[in-house]
Amino acid sequence: MNDSKITQIGFLIFPGFPMACLTSIIEPLRAANEIADRAVFDWHVLSETGARIVSSARVVFEPDGSLADADGLDMLFVLGAPTSAFEDPHHGNGALRRLDRHGVILGAISGGVFPLVRAGVMEGHSCSVHWCYEAAFRTAFPDVRMTDDVITRDRRRYTVSGAASAFDLALQLIEDRLGPDLAHEVACWFQHPTMRGDGVRQRIPMSPGAGPDLPDLVAQAAALFADHIEDPISVAEVARIVDVTPRQVERAFKKATGQSPTHYYRGMRMKAARQLVLYSKQNMQSIAQAVGYTSPTPLVAHYHDAFGVSPQEDRKRINSFRVQGNVPLPPA
What number is the average pLDDT over the span 83-111? Predict the structure, then answer.
């Protein structure tokens, strides 16, 4: 880009969008302007109609305009929840496709990737998906290439998995315009410990005491479990594939996670089930099958053991929040 040009960025917010994702990308851009002592980045907060929007934190935002006011942007990022959708899909989705035809870079942060994909502009592109949404995304969009990278920049599509990675993307945009030294200075201003770029995978938080990394044996077994959510695999089969005994797998899991491999695996399946309960409209039979159960009965029992509520109660609870415009999102 021309050094004298101001990069115009739009943020399209939906009800229940994660406020941290918006501030995490705007604040570094604001700091870059201040350090550079000139306006390099400018931003505009938009909603579908220009109406005010309530974030997931119940903070109200008054947009600068509507999606119809998005002309002149260089980039547009969508922020929302997995359930977010346009009130008028024909015009909303058409507006995003029109921006794409005019060369605007389109992107999404956290759950905003769902409405972005629904707009029909991600065909042939890869996108980052927060690990909390993987099962729901895979079910909703089986033909879209999903990555577990914190940032995916695929030609004119920029997607990031959450608030922390939105900050990292801002640093990349700053580096692209103003160089690595100024991007590093911005990171230092906010005491941001590392500048993560493309190709860095998300790290799922471990339980206290489990350590930052799993031993190789446990990591291999966990990867096999993750690949067999819908079609369960036994501990004995895992042991055979990784060429150890089932007893070795048992001991390794107990030492690394404090859980048996069976309990750990069930936890993975329950987390996937919860994504589908909270972020999809599938019925319990379909959800049960998606996480490897032939009927909902054992799913409901294991779900209650894991989360203290039934899937139906969990969905009812989350829907009561949505009615109030407050959709809980992962603490990305």
Answer: 96
